[in-house]
Amino acid sequence: MTAVDGVSLEVPEGQVVGLVGESGSGKSTLAKAAVGLAPLTAGRISLGGAPVPTRGRHRPLQMVFQDPYSSLDPRMTIGESVAEAMPPGRSRAQRRAEVERLLDLVHIDPAAASALPSRLSGGQRQRVALARALGANPRVIIADEITSALDVSIQGAVLNLVRELQRELGLSILFISHNLAVVRYVASHVAVMRQGRVVEHGPTARVLTEPSHDYTRELLAAVPGRTTRRSRP
Question: Where is the ABC transporter domain (predicted)?
């Protein structure tokens, strides 16, 4: 069985690209292959035309996972988790200062650096996971369903943080979600996956209002209160 087949997907520098599709469509498999967590039997993942290294801790692609309760080591303090992702060569004082800067960047009190993850809420843990990803100085961040495990009341704050970080830092982000409203909010472009293939892609406003593929229309029709227009042939 092939989970991802013949996918060609580009994340332009400084842009957020949404990747949508139903469960089992291959979204997370594609993300894991990009960061070396799933085998790549054909094709390649490239960055600026060069193959992306999939070994080693400090990779140019960093992933933030869906479950904030399992993505942080419960035995490590928040500060240790964030510092672990940083490139080598900094003194202890420099690493501590950078941890404080990153926590402040994601709106976590730097004093929490000495706390264990068990002291934090799900939303706070996901903010720490974002700080850890940023600590690696990545070229691209892959956010895999990062709000789906959070309470609705917290999801908006995390999405606002993603938009804020992207705007202030010029981040390149592949934002994976099954929630079309979330993708519309954060992404300038969107790709639609079905059964391991990208069936449609383009500017978010166009794809989610005038879809050209039947599957995209099916996804939109399943959203309560949504209406779509067929794109002109």
Answer: 1-220
pLDDT tens digit string along 171-200? Answer: 999 999 989 999 999 999 999 999 888 899
- Per-residue model confidence as pLDDT tens digits over 72-104: 999 999 999 999 999 888 999 999 999 999 999
Contact assessment for residue 36 and residue 54, using Cβ atoms and an 8 Å cutoff? yes
Give the number of other Cβ atoms within 10 Å of residue 84's Cβ. 14
Are the C-beta atoms of 31 and 142 separated by less than 8 Å? yes
**Residue 4 contacts residue 198 (beta carbons within 8 Å):** no
Structural domains of the chain sorted by starting position, each given as residue range(s) with its CATH number in brackets: 16-73+138-221 (3.40.50.300)
What is the rounded CA–CA span in Å between residue 205 and residue 129?
29
Tell me the C-alpha distance between 85 and 76, whole Å: 13
Classify strands 197-203 and 189-194 as parallel, antiparallel or unpaired: antiparallel
Q: Can you read off the two tokens belonging to residue 182?
A: 């979330």
Average pLDDT over residues 127-154: 93
SS3 category, 118: helix
Whether 52 and 210 have beta carbons less than 8 Å apart is answered as no
